[in-house]
Every structure is written in structure tokens, then in C-alpha cells.
Amino acid sequence: MRSETTYKGIPASPGISIGKAYLYTRSRFEVDTEYLQISEIQKESEEFKRALELSVKELKKIRSLSYEKIGEKNSLIFDAQLEILNDKFFINSVISRIQKEKRTASFIFDEEMSKIGHALLSSNDEYLKERVTDINDVRNRVLRNMKKEKLVSKVEEYSIIIGHEITPADTILFSKRKVQGYATDRGGTTSHAAIVSRALRVPAVVGMKDISKNVTSGEMIIIDGFNGIIIKDPTEKTLKAYKRKLDELKEYDEKLNKVIDLPSETSDFKTVELSANIEFDEEIGFIVNTGHCGIGLYRTEHLFLEAGDFPSEERQIEEYTHIANVTYPNTVTIRTYDIGGDKLLPRSEKEDNPFLGWRGIRICLDRIDIFKEQLSALLISSLKKNVKIMFPMISSMSEVMRAKEILNEVKKDLDKKEIRYDKNIEVGIMIEVPSAYFLADDLAKEVDFFSIGTNDLIQYILAVDRGNEYISGLYQEFHPAVLRAIKSITDAAHKNKIRISVCGEMASDPLATAVLVGLGIDELSVVPSIFPEIKQIIRKLVYSEAKDFCDEILTYPDEEKIRTLVYKFYQEKIVSR
Hints:
Layout: E1 5-8, E2 10-13, E3 16-24, H1 41-70, H2 76-86, H3 88-101, H4 105-121, H5 126-146, E4 160-163, H6 168-175, E5 181-184, H7 192-200, E6 204-206, H8 211-214, E7 220-224, E8 229-232, H9 236-257, E9 273-278, H10 284-291, E10 295-298, H11 301-307, H12 313-327, E11 332-335, H13 341-344, H14 361-366, H15 368-380, E12 387-391, H16 397-416, E13 426-431, H17 434-438, H18 440-444, E14 449-452, H19 454-462, H20 480-495, E15 499-502, H21 510-518, E16 523-526, H22 531-540, H23 543-553, H24 559-575
Parallel strand pairs: 3-4, 4-5, 5-6, 9-10, 9-16, 10-11, 11-12, 12-13, 13-14, 14-15, 15-16
Antiparallel strand pairs: 1-8, 2-6, 3-7, 7-8
Helix pairs in contact: 1-2, 1-5, 1-6, 3-4, 4-5, 6-7, 12-15, 15-16, 21-22, 21-23, 21-24
């Protein structure tokens, strides 16, 4: 008799599904390593070109389906794959090597694709590492077509896909079969398969290491994308519990949706602005269709990562104008490039500690030409007067003054060209470095708003690398030093009559909502998926109670004591109401 087994991974897309597993095995096509006869070289080159043409046709069909399913902006990965297959320089170099070295097309093509893959793997950036899957997808597609094998995408309807790794193309093709979820051995939350899963709103769990070896097709499983688990052969008791959770989720979603358009204010009428963090294109739909809110943090790094280089000013104007338009009449706070040295120059000498290295505003002030292009694009996109500019990784007053000076230079250039823009555009900074905390009162005199990036502020204040599994437990958002820092920064902002928001992960933690509101934060910028829940919590809060509670916990030096009190307050003042 089989027994219930639970497997843990990384939650990549929220949701719960119950159904039968489908074990998907992607063929790994081997290359032909033998040498060619001179008489075979021409035919080999032609076969390679034919395989490329067929691969391009396949990708165009998949891209077309992707447009239909998740929209054009969410489908850019397929454009990137097509660019590789249409890159004449790359293709000509493969053909040239075939002719010179007299090796098979599959051997040469595999080597060239491996070079690209190795370059990505050598990067310290997780987003770039995840792109290796996309490179492998292109490789396998071309090699399969060289061997004249068929594209297989037959999957039982309503299955939960289990696999070693799943490409974006797989995800889109499977969507035609009403797939209910994805679980993979490999991958992270920034993999395109995870992004597409979120766009399609199906649960996904990644980084499970060996789930493909432990589950077979046809087995009954539960996928829990909230907690990142797969349950194989669930007992009747577990099935009933999860069916009850599905009913509760449906009921809860319906209840939360009624809150969406209500004012974001406490029960004693203290307004707390609630906005959204936007990183991926599929999240923009939330602003338009559901949240009807502003954007408290719009990250621009994806433009660089998608292009593999800094995007043109024209491309940026197009992007920023679109964001301003869909957000209007609400505001959008656009952060200038927050790119680390390892992301910018993956082939350069590796920095020993990129988190303390050449990143954020430091790169912008060194690469003024790039910085000016971005500032110009932001200004030109500000005609609706709802765009704000935010500088990241500020650690000194001189950085703020120099950044503002460059912004003024850009304004003068636009004035000379008689190009219109918002003359009174607001400029703010992220407070995420301890030195900025100590200088908060001085910095507040020079900017229009603060935004606290709690992710970095916490790890810098506590000297804890939150990505380090050995010490991740020391990363404490309710540490007294963190709470006192947030309170001090907030007081400095209000003393100088500027607004302050929190855009880090702490803002999206329901347990922390009462604390941040009680500390005096004016705005919470949260991930779209948690937006309705945070709004509901704000509306249940009594601001005077939250403020008094924060005054109390600020006196305690012990983080465990504070966390216990925070949880108790949450249960008594939020859950029970």
C-alpha cells in the first residue's frame, strides 16, 4: 500500500491544484562528433540551414500562441530566441567552422551554444543564470530538427506537469491542454517558465532537485504553490483538507475582491497609500484590471537584462510612457538602473563582494552618458505629470547632489530642443544603506520623498547575507535595530515634510503591516498578489492602537520578544476582527 509523501521546493507561482501527474521528459539530442568528407560539407551546411528554418517556423507559431495566451510583452523571450536563430554573424560563424574544421553541424552548433551558456553560468546574477534554460531550448530545437524528429507536446488535459526542467515554449504549448501546474527539479523564481506560470495563473514549484525521479505519470498529486510542496498519493484526510482550502481560497478571493476598490485607510480614517511593485510585464495587467492603484516601485533593470545591454533612449521612452499611461491618474515611481557590476560586465574581473561593489547609483555616476539617456527618457515620458524618479543605493549627500546636477543638465538640454516634460517632476531616493539612515535628516532636505528598501537595509544593518542558508535565520525584519532605524528615518522624513514609503519585502508581509503603519509609513508598495490582503489589513487596523503598540515594542531590545508581541497583535487586532 502506498503512503503519502511530501516533497519540498521553491514556491514560484501561487495556487493549489489537485490532479494526476504527467512526467515530461525532454529529449537530450546527442551530437555527431565524427569528421566530414570534403564531399559532405556542402550538404551538411544545407541541412543545418534547413533545421534553422524549421526551428524559426516552430518558434513563430509558439510566439503567436503566446501572444494569444499572455500578451505580446510577456512573450519577449521567444523574440530573444528567434534573434539567436536569425543572427547572421552567429550562423555564418557556425557554417565557417563547419567548412574549415570539417566537423558536423551539430558538433559545431552545440559548441557555439555551449559558449553562450557558459558565459551566462559564470555570471553572479541569478536572472542571467536562468537564461541557460532558454539557450538549451534553442539548442535542442535545432538539433532535433537536424535529426528530423517530431515536436512532441501531447499531454493529458488537466495534468500537473513534472519534469527536470521546463522551458517557456513547453509552458505555452502545454497551456493548450489546460495544464493545472508545474513542478521541476531545476529553476528559480526568475526562470521564464516560472514567469509564464504566474502570467497564466497556474501554481508552480521549482528547484525540487529530484521530483522527476520520485513521481510517475498517472499518480495522484497535490501541488501547493503557496508553500512550495508536492504531495504524492495524498490520503483521504489530506485530500479533504486541500479541497476545503480550495473552497476557502475561492471564498477568500471573492471577499478580498470586494475590498480592492475601497479606500486604503484605517478604521479611524488614517490614509495609508497602497501601491504595487512592478518587475515583470505580466504584473502590469493588475494595475489596469484589478488594483487601479499607483506603482510605488517600477524596476528598470529588466530592460537591460532583456536586451543584454543598455536599451536605447527610444526603447526607454516607449516603455516609460506606456507605464505612465496605464497608471494615470495615479503616480508611478521609476527607479533608475540598480544593476551590479557582475550584471553589467559579466566578462570583466569578478568583484569579491558585488553587494558592496559597483552597483546602483555608483554605476550611473560613472557612466554619465547612460545615466543621462535614462533621465532624458524619464523626463520625456512625464507629460502626464504622474512620473517620479528614484535613485537607488544612495550612501552620501554628494551622490544626491551630483545626480540632481546631472538631472538639471538633462532638463536644460531638453529646454534647448523645446521638448516638453514635467518641470516639477518629483525626485526621491531609496534608503537602504546604513550611512543613508544616519544622514536621513540631511538627505530629506534635498529630495521630495524617501522609499525604504528593507531587503538591503536589514541585511546591511544586521550584517546578514539573507541568501546564505547558514545564517539566513539571523535575517530578522523585527530586529529592534531595524525597527528603530525605520522609525528614525520616518521621523526625519516627516520633520522635513516629505513622504516616505516602504517597497521592500517587509511591505508585502501581512504580519508587518500594522508595524509599518504604526511607525508612521505613508505608503506601502507591495507585490500585486498580496495587494488585496494588505488592503484588508489596513482597513481593519485602528491607527491609534498600531501607533501605541509600536511605541511599546520600540522599547524592547530582544527580537524574539518583539516577534511574539507582533504575532499576538496580529491575531487579536486583525484576524479576530
